[in-house]
Specification:
By secondary structure, the protein is an alpha/beta fold. The chain has helices spanning 3-10, 32-45, 62-65, 74-78, 84-87, 112-123, 142-150, 162-179, 194-211, 228-235, 239-242, 247-261, 271-277, and strands at 19-25, 50-54, 89-90, 96-98, 131-138, 153-158, 183-191, 216-224.
């Protein structure tokens, strides 16, 4: 990082109590974006101000799931056409959303110059929120790893599908071996029972403990299979909003409470580190 970059990060007025959380997965199709939206809604109901970054920069999902049609997105920021505060859109409740572009291939990779531009934009934007949820892409691409590394906390989404288990473990392994990330929360989605979810977590945990010395995996909880979920998706509205009494909605609330009650790892506790890493990943 340049001296100028360090100085800017140290002078940042961002509230250091902001939690920067990446929600990620090794495999696509596990319901990750839906999890992000409904966790944000649950936190909103708990009185937290939430900002969602759709970090699948070339294949936007969050705005589609919410029936939004933003005029501008993060590609306009990186082209120098808009300030980052100008692209934020109002989501459900008090949630703010930073939309990504869709079908723009050049957005699947950020240059160092673009990372610097984003940092400058973020530093000049009022950060009056409590939680910054990053909806990453799936897999182990450079961009997925990038947004995971700059987050203070990581939630890895699994399902019972064998490919979800192998690909999710592969993501954790790469983040551990190449970037020294040791702390991960595991959330099992679309599952029959909590017992089954804990069995899946136990399988992942045993393999990780055996091959990845010093790693820490925590079971965050599970979201059950629920017919209300596809109904909410078809309506392009959050499950927490249209079916708040559904089993899955109640589980999202429980997961949100558990997450907020658990402090982030101490070595990633300051959001200032997030901005510094933007220049040095």
């Amino acid at each position: 990082m340049t001296e100028v970059g360090i100085k800017k990060a140290e002078q940042s007025h961002i509230n250091e109590t902001v939690r920067v959380i990446a929600v990620t997965s090794g495999k696509g199709g596990v319901g990750k974006s839906n999890v992000v939206i409904n966790l944000a809604m649950a936190m909103d109901k708990l009185g937290k101000k939430v900002l969602i970054l759709d970090a699948d920069l070339g294949l936007a999902n969050v705005d589609v799931l919410l029936g939004l049609n933003p005029q501008y997105n993060i590609s306009h920021v990186l082209k120098g056409e808009k300030h980052i505060s100008e692209i934020l859109v109002q989501g459900p409740g008090n949630i703010k959303i930073m939309p990504a572009s869709s079908g723009v291939q050049e957005m699947t990779h950020l240059s160092n110059e673009q990372k610097i531009l984003l940092m400058d934009m973020f530093e000049s934007m009022p950060m009056d929120f409590d939680v910054f949820l990053i909806d990453t892409g799936a897999g182990i691409s450079d961009m997925v790893l990038y947004f995971n590394v700059i987050a203070n906390e990581k939630i890895v989404i699994f399902t019972q599908e064998p490919t979800s288990l192998t690909d999710g473990y592969a993501l954790i392994k790469v983040l551990y071996q190449k970037h020294g990330e040791r702390y991960f929360k595991v959330l099992v989605n679309n599952i029959e029972s909590e017992k089954q979810a804990k069995t899946i977590f136990s399988q992942i945990s045993k393999v990780a403990d055996h091959f990845l010395d010093g790693i820490s995996l925590d079971f965050l909880g599970c979201i059950p299979k629920d017919q209300a979920i596809p109904k909410a998706v078809m309506q392009q509205r959050p499950l927490m909003e249209v079916f708040p009494e559904s089993p899955a909605a109640k589980s999202f609330m429980n997961v949100a409470k558990r997450l907020l009650m658990t402090p982030p790892p101490s070595e990633h506790g300051a959001v200032r580190l997030f901005w510094k890493k933007l220049l040095n990943v």
